[in-house]
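Human: I would love a firmer grasp of how sequence relates to backbone shape in proteins. Take your time, and here it is.
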Amino acid sequence: MFYLSKIEHKFALPPHLLARPIREAIQSELERLFLDKVIQKLGLCISVYDITSIEGGSIFPGAGAPTYQVVFNLIMFRPFPGEIISAKVMSLDADGVRLSLGFFEDIYIPTHHMPYPSYYISKNNTRKWTWEYGEETDEFNIEISNEIRFQVLSVSYPTIPVEQAKESKPFAPMVVNGSLYHEGLGPVSWWQ
């Protein structure tokens, strides 16, 4: 789920950071550049783990800031297919369930990966997914704020759209698709 990724990056250090010790100033700028951003095929940047090397510091003609070549390690979030993760239900509708880890909210369980047979109910301001297990009297519900265990099916990095319709959901640079279709998956309360 979490990985260390070694990155090499060349950037100009803003002059307002030059009063600080150089390692601290570079760490601050790296955090501004990378934290909470998705890097294609690597995942979501959680933290700057360490700085391996710093080279440069030259000020080029016409530039008002020193340029550094930095090698550093980032802690990245990228779940792998088959991994089991616990998350909270953020929203649900007839298309499936959206989950949140607190720091990442683009996790989707589509309808065809819900436990079978299950169906969506929306009435009297109550929305839930219900799984009919065995006899008709055995119904298990999935509701908002339930803690859920799900299996990761895929992690995708959609291409950035040139134009986006106003009514469409916000663009997500990394999307995790999951499943509740196996034993032990679903709300934690089902299996206690």
Notes: The chain has two domains: 2-77, 84-191. Residues 22-34 form the longest helix (13 residues). Residues 84-191 form a domain with the OB fold (Dihydrolipoamide Acetyltransferase, E2P) fold (CATH 2.40.50.140). DSSP finds one helix and 13 strands in the chain.
